[in-house]
């Protein structure tokens, strides 16, 4: 386990940058040399007892995080929870898992073969949350997974890592709307996820979000390699609740579309 929130997030950020070079460029573009506040990061997994959501969450609970909202994504067969730290400066954490029992027997068989390759002690290891894919997979099995579930395909090749960091637009000095952020990103040549519109959510649900489409990285299969969507960068603008405090939760209908930031072109 990590000894501090800062240490864990620094390790996650460095690991994330190895497959998401555009995040550093965007960080500089939006921050203009000033610090960027990170709203949240997200992780994915399979709901297997060995490696389920709770195994990831344990690392955050140990650092003082608390469980908050729950989210259901029926069509994508996902379940998620978010976690917050009593220190509001600590980024929020969103963890989802694929509900394997709702997937096809073929998908379940391929995923079981991946999970069989994992050492039982991995989830307790300090670097679990940025250990990448702790298994090997053939290109054919990857394609079978991705054809049924983009999430399963991504998870099989990228595994355990922050799949995105999120710029807190509330804290940016040079931008006061998500629209302004999106325009600057497009002007600089970054591709935004337009599933459900470039801006997901609204002031009514107290959260507006947008995201880039994931960068691509070279993935090694047991029988070759391919360039596939890796990780993306998200932008979040939060609105105050009636009590004046900024909303800290997530919005399922928006999250449903954010997941698609790692979709392959065919997906
Ligand atoms: C998480 C998607 C949801 C949000 O902020 O609503 C999300 C993922 O892509 O794993 O990040
Ligand atoms: Ni997010």
TrEMBL record:
<protein>
    <recommendedName>
        <fullName>2-oxoadipate dioxygenase/decarboxylase</fullName>
        <ecNumber>1.13.11.93</ecNumber>
    </recommendedName>
</protein>
<comment type="similarity">
    <text>Belongs to the 2-oxoadipate dioxygenase/decarboxylase family.</text>
</comment>
<dbReference type="InterPro" id="IPR009770">
    <property type="entry name" value="HGLS"/>
</dbReference>
<dbReference type="Pfam" id="PF07063">
    <property type="entry name" value="HGLS"/>
</dbReference>
<keyword id="KW-0408">Iron</keyword>
<keyword id="KW-0223">Dioxygenase</keyword>
<keyword id="KW-0560">Oxidoreductase</keyword>
